[in-house]
Every structure is written in structure tokens, then in C-alpha cells.
Amino acid sequence: MPDSLAPELPLRPDLVGEQPYGAPQLDVPHLLNVNENPYAPPAEVIEDIATSVAAAAAGLNRYPDRDFRDLRAELAAYLERESGASGLTADHLWAANGSNEVMLHLLQAFGGPGRAVMSFGPTYSMYPEYARDSHTHWVEGSRRPDYSLDPDATIAHIAQVRPAVVLLASPNNPTGTALPLADVRAIADACATTGPDGAATILVVDEAYAEFRRKGTPSALSVLADYPHMAVARTMSKAFALAGARVGYLAAAPRLVDCLRIVRLPYHLSAVTQAVARAALRHTDALQAQVTQLRAERDACVTWLRDQGFTVADTDANFVLFGPFEDRHAVWQGLLDRGVLIRETGPKQYLRVSIGTVDQMAAFRGALKEVTGR
Ligand code: PMP
Q1: Is the ipTM above a cut-off of 0.95?
Q2: Which residues get modified to N6-(pyridoxal phosphate)lysine (predicted)?
Q3: pLDDT per residue over 60-95, tens digit each?
Q4: Which of 126, 127, 212 to mutate to test the pocket of ligand 1 (most atoms within 8 A of CB)?
Q5: Residue nearest to atom 5 of ligand 1 (CA)
Q6: Domain-by-domain residue ranges, the chain?
Q7: Domain 47-286 has CATH 3.10.450.40
Q8: Strand 319-323 to strand 351-354: parallel, antiparallel, or no bridges (unpaired)?
Q9: Which CATH class, in words, describes the domain spanning 23-39+290-372?
Q10: What are the distances in angstroms from CA 132 to CA 108, 158, 183?
């Protein structure tokens, strides 16, 4: 049918002019733009994943385990080991196709028309999209100039808006800023009474990058047991080097998890995904073998950028926000022309680079020197 005869499609008015979310996916040697782990799974892990997927394939005529209790129990065990938290069981865990979907479930269950979701910018640019897609009003508060949260101002703003959900990324994307545990506690205490109609506000601590945190930065999981209205979201996309598998999860009180079970689509986590995730969890140490090295590379990158005279945010994640640039797009393009893809995101004069292999970081430094003439 020629375009001129195409019928009008009844796209929701609030979606007219919207673009699909996503950074450019380009075929260049140094992909440092979406905070992936640059190390592919080792051979023994690939083999176990392949065997596990073959076993799952034999049953693909049947729907998968809708409640994926084995995977949830194994994720609970991993989180206890990783964070030192105790008392986590399958009932405390939830999972979906990436932590993006986990957080969408939170908004579907607790947001909605007449309700608000808040976060504090600059922060993860998908958050307003969860709000839009769940018809929840989006309110963005602010951070201090160093991107930390001012707990008193944050609590006052939450008390004024009375949101159903607050999303706090720690470490925050795109700045790398971690939230001190005392601030998590103070905000969680306040959230107990700031929700709609006298209810609590659901406080979501998004710890997608938690495994990269520096020593002495505890996970919010260590206080989760005290807060029935708190959820801590994690992902296998970053430290686990499993972005392609699409597995995200959260821990929360079983009553909160039961609310999410209402809104999930039936069988949302495929048998193949469950098999891959469970195989990966058997090889946590091998998959996360480079996390220590990535942390060291990150700290070296921060030091090097500061030595070059850039302003660099303190970071507990596997990426670094740096600048300022008069024309950040020109710098981004100059790096791309040299085979290095980074991200134009966050404050207007800043760029974000994900931490890659030793060779990739050398390529990044070389290209940035050429482009900026420093
Ligand atoms: N939270 C934050 C802060 C992120 O940066 C990302 C990915 N960029 C996610 C959540 C979602 O990751 P995934 O859906 O791959 O788990």
C-alpha cells in the first residue's frame, strides 16, 4: 500500500513523536558505550550453558516454570554471599528479562494514573520511560553539584510529592555515585509514610552496578530486612557479563514480591532464560573473575582523566563521567572516527565511558588525546 493510502494509526497521544530508547549499536573495535562487561564468558561456562540449554530445549513444547522457584532460590543464595545479608529465600526474590523489566513490574504494580514516581537527576534515562509506559506521573528532583544526594532535601521533596515509588540508582548511572548506607536508611525511614493515601512509598535501590562498588560501600541489601517497602534491584547484565541473556532480579519482602506476581505476564521468563541464568550462577566466580581488574582499570581511568585536567565524578561503577566539553558531540564523533564508541549522556557538557579491557582503555586514552589535543 502506498504511504499516501496508509490509514491513521491510533497511537496514544502521549507517544506521538517519541523515539525508541537506545544508544547507537555500531560495529566498531572498542565498544565502551553501554556499560557491558568487556570479557566474554570463558569456555567452560559456555559449555555448561550450552548443555543446560540443550536440556531445556527437550522440554520446549511445555510452558516454563511460571514461578521459577529454583532460580529464585539460587539468586537468593548468591545475594547473601555477595552482600553478607541473611534470611533471603526464593520468596524474597523476583526476576524478569533484565532489571528494566523488573522495575517496570514495580511501576505496573505500584504506579499508575493519579500516582507519581520520583528520582533525582542526573540519573538513568530509562526511569521516565517506566513512568510513561505505566501512566505514572514523573517527578525529577535534583542532586548536589558532586551528584551526591542531600538526604534532608531528598526527604523533604519526597514528603511534598508523596510518590508511590522512588527510584534511586546506587551506584548511579551516568555519574557512578554510590549512596551511603546511612542515607538509604534515612530515606527508607521517611518513605514508610510518604506514599498515596497514608501508605508507604516503595523505595527501589537500583544496584545494577553494585558488584563494582569500592570496598567499604555496603549494599542496601544489608538493611533490606528492616523495610517491607524497600526493593533492591540487581542484574546479570554487568558484573556477570551476561547482558545478552536478559536476566534482572530484585530482593524484597515476600509481600512486595507477591504484588509483582500479579502484573507479570504468564511465563515471562522463558525456559531457555532460566537455564542460562542457573548455569551462569554455577560459575559466578569465573564470570566475575575480571571485576577486580575492571575496578582497578576504572580507578586508573579516573586518575588519568583528572591528570589531563578533566572534571571526573567519583565512581563506584564500571563507567566514568568526565568533561566538561564545549562541544561534546564533536569529541564523541572524534573518538568514534578512531574506533572508540562512548556515550553522550548525562549533563550536557559531559561524556561517559564504560570500562573495557586494558587494550580498549589504552585505545580510548590515545584517541581522546588526539581529539582534544591534551
Ligand atoms: N539500572 C541501571 C542504573 C542501568 O544502567 C541499567 C542498564 N543500563 C539497568 C538498570 C538495566 O539493565 P538490564 O535491563 O540489562 O538489567
Answers
A1: yes
A2: 238
A3: 999 999 999 999 999 999 999 999 999 999 999 999
A4: 126
A5: 173
A6: 23-39+290-372, 47-286
A7: no
A8: antiparallel
A9: alpha beta
A10: 11, 19, 28
pTM, 2 dp = 0.97
76 lines ligand 1 (CB under 6 A): no
Query: How far is the C-alpha of 55 from the C-alpha of 271, rounded, in Å?
Result: 10
Tens digit of pLDDT for each residue in 322-348?
A: 999 999 999 999 999 999 999 999 999
| Distance between CA atoms of residues 288 and 68, nearest Å | 24
Residues 242-276 have pLDDT tens digits of 999 999 999 999 999 999 999 999 999 999 999 99
Inter-residue contact 167 to 127 (CB < 8 Å): yes
Q: Whose CA is nearest to atom 13 of ligand 1?
A: 98
Angle of helix 254-263 relative to helix 99-110, nearest 10 degrees, comes to 90
